Amino acid sequence: MAKNKLSTPAWIMEGYGSEADYNKAKGIGTKKKTGETFKVRKCPKCNSFDVVVITEEEAVGLWRCGKCAWKGRDVAWEELTEEAFMKYMDDKGESVA
Questions:
Q1: How confident is residue 2, by pLDDT bands cut at 50, 70 and 90?
Q2: CA distance 37 to 21
């Protein structure tokens, strides 16, 4: 079985100082999340954000969904952008200072 020959990377052939400069000039991989992100809990069963920790002494570490009554330890997390988080807070009726 023949091996492939190594080739000089395109960024070197085109005279760029680094692969990052080449990618930036060509628009490769420049999609970044802008702004801050926030993590919020959600139910793994119904995807509701109405998830609270159970405070009863015998159920330490358990979570409960207010919508579907799911109980468990493995609560799901969702990462929201700042804009989505503000909408989430408004929908909950929380005031944001």
A1: low
A2: 27
